[in-house]
Amino acid sequence: MPRPVPRHSTLVLLAVAVLAALPSCSQRRPVGPSGSTGELPDLEINDFALTETDAGKPEWKLYARYAAEYSARNTYLARDLKVDFFDDQGVRSSVLTAREGDINGRSRDMTARGNVVLVATEGTRLASEELKFLNHDQKIVVPDDQLVTVQRGSDVLTGYGFESDPDLKHYEFKRRVQATVRSRVPLGEEATK
To answer: N or C terminus: fewer CB in 10 A for the chain?
Structure first.
């Protein structure tokens, strides 16, 4: 005849089962420099979100499928990230996407890497492999060694190094700029001018 399990043992088994069923932090390790050094994150987060505001108005919101916090370096490493930038009225003005990036926990400066695309709501599109966002200055910076492509309508500019506001309204290439400008004059009108 089977022996009855003491009540306190049942409670311990129940507690272990509940703890095992609770959602836990991901066991995945971050992609990036820390993964190669063997440094373990202090915290891992799925569906990470971070908002920067000024006097209650959002300046930007970052979303990432996965993030890892490294407290000693005051850094978050993120994968599959998206950043919504907002104008002075709190209306979304552009969206940045990238494969991965890192965020400084104090300054909120960001570096995005891998298939970086920034699209302004009015249609201008920037593409590069790396981009830095300087939070205090509200400035987008692409290093001088990185190729940048900016497309506005059918016009395309390429070059190395870049500075801009997050809305891509005022921008400057640093070197080796090339332009492809396509006329917007409808066919037939050229002959009448």
So the answer is: N
Euclidean distance between CA atoms 146 and 130, whole angstroms? 7
DSSP letter at 73 equals G
**Domain ranges across the chain:** 25-184
Considering the entire predicted model, what is its pTM? 0.71
pLDDT in tens, 43-79: 888 998 888 888 888 899 999 999 998 988 888 999 9
Q: How far apart are CA 68 and CA 79, in angstroms?
A: 9
The DSSP secondary-structure symbol of 72 reads G
CATH number for the domain running over 25-184: 2.60.450.10
Q: CA nearest 181: which of 161, 159, 151, 160?
A: 151
Which pair of tokens denotes residue 8? 């306190």
